Structure formats: C-alpha cells, structure tokens
Amino acid sequence: MQRSHFYILLILNFLFVNTISAQTINSKTDSLRVGVAGTAPFVFTERGNSAPQGISVSIWDEIATDLDWTYQYKSYKTVNLALDALKKGDLDLVVGPVTINSQRLNDFRFSQPFYQSSLAIAYKQGEFSIWNVFKLLFSFKLLLAIGIFLVILGIVGTLLWLAERKASPEQFSSKPAKGIGSGMWLAIVTMSTTGYGDKAPVTLMGRIIAGTWMVVSIISATSMIAGIASVLTFSNFQSVDIKNIEQLNGKKVATISGSPSVTFLKEYNIRIKPTETLAEAIKMLNAEQVDAIVYDRPQLMHYINTHKDDDLELATAEYYQQGYGFAFPKESNLVFQVNRTLLELSEDQQISEIIEEYLGKPK
C-alpha cells in the first residue's frame, strides 16, 4: 500500500515538472503580445515607424533578451486602455509606467517595481511686469475688501450724521449727502488717529458712536492694513512658489484622467481639470487656464528638463509614493522569471544606468 502511494506521488511530480517545463518552453518560443502605453520618459511611441523607446521599454528589452523571449509590441494611447486589453486576453503583458496598487491587484499580477515614483506639483514661474501690477491692484479680492470697507464707513458716517445733525448743524449739514460725507470724514480721522479737530461729536449718542468706532477700528485696522500690505508687497507681484499641496486650495489644477493623482486631489477637495494627456495639461498651464499640474514626478521632471523655455518649476514636496511595474494576467506564469531577471539587472546596476540615461543622475 505504501509502495502504491509512492508511485502515485512520483507520477504526480513527473506531471508537475513536465507542465512547468512545457510552460517555460512555450514562454520562450511563443511570440509574446506586449502592450506598450504611458508617457515620456518611460515610453516614447510617437517617433515615426521606429520601435517604442523609453525607460520601461529599455528595461523590458533587457529582460526579454536575457530570457531569450520573442515578442511583438502593440501601442496604446493610455495605460488604462492597455490594461483593459490585458484583462480581455488580447495581451500577455503591459510595459510602461503602470502604477502598482491594491485596486489593480484584483484583476492583474505585477512584477516587482522597477522604479519608485511619486506625485509632484508643477507650476508656472512668473516674471515681474507692469501688467501683473495692474492685475494685482484691480484684483477681485482687493476690490471686494475696499468695497466692504466703504460700506462700513458709510454706515458709521450715517449714524454720526443722524446723531449730530440737529445739535451741531454747523459741522453736519442737514443735507443728507453733505452731512453723511462729514460723518464719514470724522470716521476716517478717528480710525487713523489723525485728530484734525475740525469735526467732533457734541451729543452723547454721537460720542458713544464715535467711541465704539474707535475701539472697533483699533482692533480691525491692524489686520486690515497688514492684509492690504501683503497683497501689495513686491514679492506678490511675481508668481508665488508652490511648496506643498495646501497652497493649491481654491485653485484649479490639471491632471491626467484615471491616474492616481485624481484620487489624491479629491482627498484635498481641489478643483480638478482632467485631461487625456500630459501635453494637454501643459498647454492649459501655459494658457493660464489652470494654476498647477499634479502628476507623476518623473514625467513632469522629464518635461521640464526638455522644455526649459516654458519656465516651469517643480515643487520639492512628494506625495503618494508608489512603484511602477509590468502588468500580467492573474493566471500568467511569466511573473517569476521576470522578477528574477529584474533583480539580476538591478544588482548589476543596469536599471540605474537606464534610468540615468533618460532622467540624469539624481541630485
């Protein structure tokens, strides 16, 4: 009985080994269907009839060469479209800056990350100009603050005129326009502590109103003047450096539809302007339709390095650090061999050399 169990286990082991061997042989001899999608510097697909290039493509080429695999590329406009084709069974894997996250693990298997990415903020660096000065002086916020101040001043001036017009007609005319104007002048003189003495309340009610206004103006004047000064300061005539995501509160931000940056921006309740490509987002930023772009840091870094005339800056803050990897169907038997080769390439510094070729050496 024990001998029969032994023979059964031997036969099962033989079948398992042959199945694995067959899968390995097939993976070497069959031409793999490789979907390519993403943006520069990880994927370049718009270069005439030439083969795709970029960080992801170069790393995959090294893996396939080491494993002696043959393959055919099929380009897709976005990573999401390539993943949809992979899910339908039209592809054997997807090569590109595919973000590895828990949601995608429900439908795909991933290689180990070949690059650690993060989200970053790109913004337009402004320059001093007379036009920027005029825009600032006539900005909506400043005009609104001045308007509110004039309304309050008018209310105080009216109250002073109503209290003083009968007891002091020589100071406060019985004519409403002239009398309220005198009351506003008294309010301004009182608030600024100038004290010309040409106008002064003589009634009890007038003095109560003037005294109350003194206390209120002392409390509010400092903060109001500080606010106006901060608006009119020379540094604000230029573009303010964006250092973190909190500075984008209330501003319009462009990002790529379907990317992890959409979820990230929603967490901060930021107004999103979705686009299909990074080029569209850059175009919106240059046209001042948005205040910044939030997207994957290496893609933004590559664009800024290759388009210095656009005067774009990249904030130092990094968010949502996630890895890029290759995507496979859940039942794929290629992942183990790809991971092992990735480790070998990493140990030999080949992956670092490929990344430096496109992004330069890290500062």
From TrEMBL:
Biological classification of the source: Bacteria, Pseudomonadati, Bacteroidota, Flavobacteriia, Flavobacteriales
Pfam families noted in UniProt: Lig_chan, SBP_bac_3
Transmembrane segments annotated in the record for this chain: 142-163, 175-196, 208-234
Species: Kaistella antarctica
Listed name of the protein: ABC transporter substrate-binding protein
Any single GO CC term annotated in Swiss-Prot or TrEMBL for this entry: membrane
The gene coding this protein: glnH
SMART domains assigned to the protein according to its UniProt record, in alphabetical order: PBPb, PBPe
Keywords from the named record: Glycoprotein, Ion channel, Ion transport, Membrane, Receptor, Transmembrane, Transmembrane helix, Transport
Membrane topology type: Multi-pass membrane protein
Ranges of residues in domain Solute-binding protein family 3/N-terminal: 31-362
Gene3D superfamilies listed in its UniProt record: 1.10.287.70, Periplasmic binding protein-like II (3.40.190.10)
